[in-house]
Design goal:
The chain is α/β, with parallel strands linked by helices and 228 residues long. 41% of the residues lie in helices and 18% in strands. It has a single domain, classed as TIM Barrel, CATH 3.20.20.
Length: 228
């Protein structure tokens, strides 16, 4: 088993150093520990090291974990593909959803969230490199989507999420991340009340922080390779 406590501390140290190096405010980057395919025991180890935000991709697996960890003060982030038929379970069990790209799905989440009488945090997924294999809105669709989203009363629209193509160097990865940061900044300057840019994973989070990420999603660097 990976030395999870040690890994958490190392990633947090890396974040602090990147914040300083790239002239970011201290504690301006949220760490999400991506626990998909990993056990409840591993999540507890990360929790004991001070981690409170956890990301899951697979709904049924995540619901089982959430049920076992109800007594823990965890913020759960859904970062996987969202189908409309999953909307009720997601809206009832998660604090954040990072992977929204359909208004129909957002409408269903909004409807079911009324059962809790508490808004849910949402990031809109952007397909920054227009890859057929990935979900997300095209750049030209983002603003219309944000405008339409305003009608949903239980949605707290926080920002954008993207998973760009991997690049060979830090500099190339930074340039890709900077593209989504510029889109984000343009929307904020137009008056959209956004505060979250969910970009960066285990292999590229330093470049993401340099570009302006406020939320990095780290799995392998914390938990090791995925469990089969």
């Amino acid at each position: 088993m990976a030395d999870i406590e040690k890994n958490i501390l190392q990633v947090k140290k890396d974040i602090e150093e990147s914040e300083s190096l790239f002239c970011r405010e201290k504690n301006s980057v949220m760490l999400i520990a991506v626990s998909k395919t990993h056990s409840v025991e591993k999540i507890k180890k990360a929790y004991s090291a001070g981690q409170r935000d956890f990301g899951e991709n697979y709904l049924q697996e995540s619901i089982e974990k959430i049920e076992k960890l109800r007594d823990f003060n965890i913020n759960w982030h859904f970062i996987g593909s969202v189908q409309s038929n999953k909307a009720k379970l997601i809206s009832h069990n998660f604090d954040w959803v990072h992977s929204i790209d359909k208004l129909k799905t957002l409408e269903k989440i909004n409807q079911h969230r009324r059962d809790l009488n508490k808004k849910i945090n949402i990031c809109v997924q952007v397909n920054i490199d227009q890859e057929d294999s990935k979900s997300g809105l095209n750049i030209s669709e983002i603003e219309d989507f944000l405008l339409e989203s305003r009608k949903f009363d239980m949605i707290n629209l926080r920002g954008l999420m993207a998973i760009p193509k991997p690049q060979k160097t830090h500099e190339l990865q930074y340039k890709t991340f900077l593209r989504i940061k510029k889109i984000y900044d343009e929307l904020v300057n137009k008056g959209y009340n956004l505060d979250t840019l969910s970009i960066g994973m285990s292999s590229d989070y330093s470049a993401a922080i340099e570009a302006g990420s406020t939320c990095i999603r780290i799995g392998t660097a914390i938990f090791g390779q995925r469990e089969k």
